[in-house]
Every structure is written in structure tokens, then in C-alpha cells.
Design a protein that fits this description.
about 325 residues; 2 domains; two-stranded antiparallel ribbon; 11 helices; 10 strands; elongated; binds S-adenosylmethionine
């Protein structure tokens, strides 16, 4: 078994991706948002250490082979503050990961982040990350790619993310390849419920919102094969029949939640549908007593699980080949 240490675990999207490989086991997960922890613990056997990562001492983490983490990206994302490492709220969180991998030297380090990480601050932020990995002993054994979920995960979401995989041992690195693109076969019809009526609160009915907005939605949303978004003053149609990139701020006021046209009316996606748009399996359960705002945020913060699955499989195959 390959033992995984999951940092910034959120609701466990990366964990799910690795666990789809039967050779993996989560031995430690850390996440300090109690709501995300609640969702996580409903779906996984392991408990989450819910302390702030700054408080966790290296020697408190059990023995592990692979460290995984999508460290918070607000300071790197276009949608965020564009402050990078200067942002003292979140900018230092990569260095918390570094503190742990420097001392523990895991066989593999897997990082996920927004695409913009590469170009942020004229490439300086990314250079710092690679430099720290190299100094910790991973030099010339790092592979990274920006992959779009709709091209690499067979899920109809436009979600470009950078995936970085660093190996301690050169023979593992040499056996690893990032996954190749695959055909997108799933459509939004496979993941959202167009045929049944859902709870009233998800529909945009007359009287519930400003009439001007309702009228515009009714006029512009003429296609039931794609996904729309309300952008303050206008409706944006996705021309490729894909879900636009889900973001953490979907939760705030629910305004960025994607919309669909169904036979029962125009409605926003339900939180569980946002999880499905990230490739979460049908047996994933959400806590019943949690607000939609929190659940939208958790889904938007998470990852495209099938992309992680494919990278995780390639990592495990590389390790297994050398462990024979
Ligand atoms: C981008 S999200 C990762 C989501 C995760 N990959 C998933 O699939 O759900 C970053 C997570 O880091 C957590 N976080 C931020 N600062 C933290 C800290 N100081 N200690 C522990 N967790 C933290 C946030 O609560 C958030 O859930």
C-alpha cells in the first residue's frame, strides 16, 4: 500500500482520485474549515486533523509515501487578489507544505493549483515553487502540465489546472508520464437532472427576482443543451456545451452558480450537481444540514476528480514498476 498524506484536503477531491487506485490509503488528512471537514468525514473512513496547518508539527504526521495538496489559490488566481506570496493570508501556505516535505522527503509530491500559477508575477511565483522542490532533493525529477478537465477527465467542465508531480527517486520519475488527452463522451445531460422537478428554491420564477433579470433569462436562455451564467447585467451562454469553471465564490449570494433550461423552467444547478460537474461519484453524500452556500463553495474549491485519478494511476504504476 502507498500511504498518502493529504494537506488542504477540503472535501477530499484529490483523496478520491488517489483512492480510486486500490494500492492507495490515506494515512493523514488536514483541513481547518469545519464545514469542509464535516462533508469529508461523511465520505471517508479516515478522520481529519482540523488544526491550522501552521500548528502541525512534522513529527505528528504518520509515515507516508505521497504528499498531496491543492494549496489555497486565492493569492494566485486571476479571480483572487493577484498578490502571490505577498498575501499574508494565504501566500505562505505553500511554504507550510515545503516545511513538511523538506523534513520528510516523501517519495512523491503532488500539487494542484490554478493555471495562472505559472504566469503569476512574471513567472516568479512558479519559479519559487520549483526552486524549493529542487532544493529539497527533487531536482530534474519534476513533471508539470496544465490540463483541462474536459480534455483529460471526460467531464463536461472547462477547468484548466496545473498539476505538478515531483519524485524523490529518478527511476520513479523516468517511469512516469502525464496522462494523454481522452475523448469527451459525457455531456451535461449525463450529469444534471433535466427531466425531473427539483426543489422550488432552485428555479428563477416571476416575482422571486428582479423582473428585468427574469425576462432576460427567459429571452436569452433558449438552448437546453448548454449551461449559462448570470453576469450581473447579462446572460453568458457557454458555446461549447460545457460547464464554465466552477469557482469557490459561487457560494457568495449564489450569483455565479451555473444555470440550465429544463422543462420545468430555468434553474440554477443544485450543489450536488456542481460536485458531479467535478466528476464526483453518485455515491458521494452531502451533509443534509449544511447551507447551499457552503456546499457551492466546497464544490468550487475542489478538483476534477477523474483528472486526478488518471495522474494518480500513472504515479502508482511508476512506483509499482520499481517495487517489483
Ligand atoms: C483549494 S482548497 C482545496 C480543496 C481540495 N483539493 C478539495 O478537493 O476539496 C484549499 C483548502 O485549504 C484549506 N486551508 C486554508 N488555509 C488553511 C490552513 N491554514 N490550515 C489548514 N487548511 C487550510 C481551506 O479551508 C480549503 O478547504
Amino acid at each position: 500500500m502507498y500511504k498518502i498524506c493529504s494537506l488542504f484536503a477540503g472535501v477530499g477531491g484529490i483523496d478520491l482520485g488517489f483512492l480510486s487506485n486500490k494500492k492507495c490509503k490515506i494515512v493523514y488528512a488536514n483541513e481547518f474549515d469545519p464545514y469542509a471537514v464535516k462533508t469529508y468525514e461523511k465520505n471517508f473512513k479516515n478522520k481529519v486533523d482540523c488544526r491550522d496547518i501552521h500548528e502541525v508539527k512534522c513529527n505528528e504526521i504518520p509515515d507516508f509515501d505521497i504528499m498531496v495538496g491543492g494549496f489555497p489559490c486565492t493569492s494566485f488566481s486571476v479571480a483572487g487578489y493577484r498578490k502571490g506570496f505577498d498575501d499574508d493570508r494565504t501566500g505562505d501556505l505553500f511554504f507550510e507544505m515545503e516545511r513538511i516535505f523538506k523534513e520528510r522527503k516523501p517519495r512523491v509530491i503532488f500539487l494542484e493549483n490554478v493555471k495562472n500559477l505559472v504566469g503569476h508575477d512574471n513567472g516568479n511565483t512558479f519559479r519559487v515553487i520549483i526552486d524549493r522542490l529542487e532544493k529539497a532533493g527533487y531536482k530534474n525529477k519534476i513533471s508539470y502540465s496544465v490540463l483541462n478537465a474536459c480534455e483529460y477527465g471526460n467531464i463536461p467542465q472547462n477547468r484548466e489546472r496545473i498539476y505538478i508531480v515531483a519524485f524523490r527517486d529518478v527511476q520513479d520519475y523516468e517511469k512516469f508520464r502525464m496522462p494523454m488527452p481522452i475523448l469527451l463522451k459525457k455531456t451535461i445531460k449525463d450529469i444534471f437532472d433535466f427531466d425531473n422537478k427539483v426543489e422550488d428554491k432552485y428555479y428563477y420564477n416571476d416575482g422571486k427576482y428582479k423582473q428585468e433579470m427574469i425576462d432576460m433569462l427567459k429571452k436569452d436562455m433558449d438552448d437546453d443543451k448548454t449551461v449559462y451564467q448570470w453576469r450581473r447585467k447579462y446572460v453568458r451562454k457557454n458555446q461549447s456545451n460545457l460547464v464554465p469553471t466552477l469557482t469557490a465564490n459561487m457560494g457568495e449570494g449564489g450569483h455565479n452558480v451555473p444555470l440550465i433550461k429544463t422543462k420545468y423552467g430555468i434553474r440554477k444547478l443544485k450543489p450536488i450537481e456542481c460536485f458531479y460537474a467535478q466528476g464526483y461519484p453518485k455515491n458521494y453524500v452531502l451533509p443534509e444540514d449544511m447551507s447551499d452556500a457552503r456546499l457551492y463553495k466546497q464544490a468550487g474549491n475542489s478538483v476534477a476528480v477523474p483528472v486526478i485519478e488518471r495522474i494518480a494511476n500513472n504515479i502508482i504504476n511508476a512506483l509499482k514498476a520499481n517495487d517489483k
